[in-house]
Design a protein that fits this description.
10 helices; 17 strands; Rossmann fold; alpha/beta
Length: 326
């Protein structure tokens, strides 16, 4: 499969405590890609192959936009072709990205969340990091820029996995940011070896949130750090919202707890040193439709007459960031 090789990842894992995963991880990655029967794969692979064969004059992974190259690295014709190639990967949800001066204005200004959380977590230097539901790997590249030994993302949506390989096309094979093509359910058996595990925007999609928290804990070494970001609602301990149908037009939304309830869940699941690091309402400055993500976004998810409520009448989206220790 052109431009899609996980062998450098496997080589990296071999030198870590994740090495037992190599008994099944290569086969699982190959199966997820080859057995997907996704009709868009030929288009995405062709787009990866159409990326310009050029050495970028600039690589900056620690800035708001993950940046590869400058516009003067390419001719005007090449830039026009590159823009069309990148558009083949629509919709772009997490970012922003900058490829050779072409700015991809993604639905989420994910740099804002990163700015909120990076000051509240342990330094990532030399750490094994897992990002559940990573999307296209934007955060993995930011984690790698902070010195992570491995920044491993997981996501079952192949479009996002393909997007993650665009930046990898221009980075050394040994670069430690990766996105593998399945969710936490399909990972090899749990190994308590990760130094930091991120779960951002995942918990409310789980029918059993406590099972998800236990899964995350099983991935962490003793003393490892959980970074949990999720929707919350106002309320006392024990309160959680279970939407009757959709929440902000999302079908698969289950439990949205109060902060005190979520703290109790974390405690019940064996986490320690639990702290609320950030609490912020989601605004249209952070999540919105753009030319790179033309579908509905936050402005259509909210009540047009009362933006503090969702279109269904529930409290508007508010996101909490918890940090805890295994």
């Amino acid at each position: 499969m052109p431009n899609i090789s996980y062998q450098p990842l496997f080589d990296l894992i071999e030198s870590t405590n994740l090495a037992p995963w190599l008994e099944s991880l290569p086969e699982r990655c190959d199966k997820a890609l080859t057995d997907a029967n996704n009709g868009h794969m030929p288009k995405w692979l062709a787009a990866l192959n159409a990326l310009p064969d050029v050495h970028p004059s600039r690589i900056e992974l620690g800035t708001d936009a993950v940046t590869i190259g400058n516009s003067d690295d390419l001719s005007t014709a090449q830039l026009s072709e590159l823009r069309q190639t990148l558009m083949a990967f629509h919709p772009w949800r997490k970012g922003p990205w900058d490829f050779f001066g072409i700015e991809i204005d993604t639905e989420w200004r994910s740099n804002r969340k990163w700015d909120r959380l990076k000051k509240s977590i342990s330094p990532l230097q030399d750490r094994l990091v897992l990002d559940i539901g990573s999307g296209n790997g934007y955060y993995c590249y930011r984690m790698a820029a902070e010195g992570a030994r491995l920044a491993l993302g997981t996501d079952p949506y192949l479009l996002y996995v393909m997007q993650s390989f665009i930046a990898r096309r221009y980075l050394p094979e040994t670069h430690p940011a990766w996105v593998i093509p399945f969710g936490i359910e399909e990972l090899p058996p749990s190994l308590p070896v990760f130094d930091t595990v991120f779960s951002m925007g995942v918990l409310y999609h789980r029918r059993s949130p406590l099972d998800h928290l236990l899964e995350l804990r099983e991935m962490l070494r003793p003393g490892g750090e959980l970074v949990l970001e999720t929707l919350v609602v106002d309320g006392a301990a024990g309160h959680a919202l279970l939407p009757k149908g959709r929440y902000a037009k999302m079908r698969n939304t289950w439990f949205i707890p109060s902060c005190l309830t979520l703290e109790a869940w974390l405690d019940r699941c064996g986490f320690k040193e639990i702290r609320l690091a950030d609490l912020a309402a989601t605004t249209t400055e952070e999540q919105r439709s753009t030319e790179w993500m033309t579908f509905d976004s936050l402005d259509t998810f909210l009540d047009p007459n009362d933006p503090t409520k969702t279109i269904e009448g529930y409290p508007g989206p508010k996101r909490a960031l918890f940090v805890a220790t295994a």
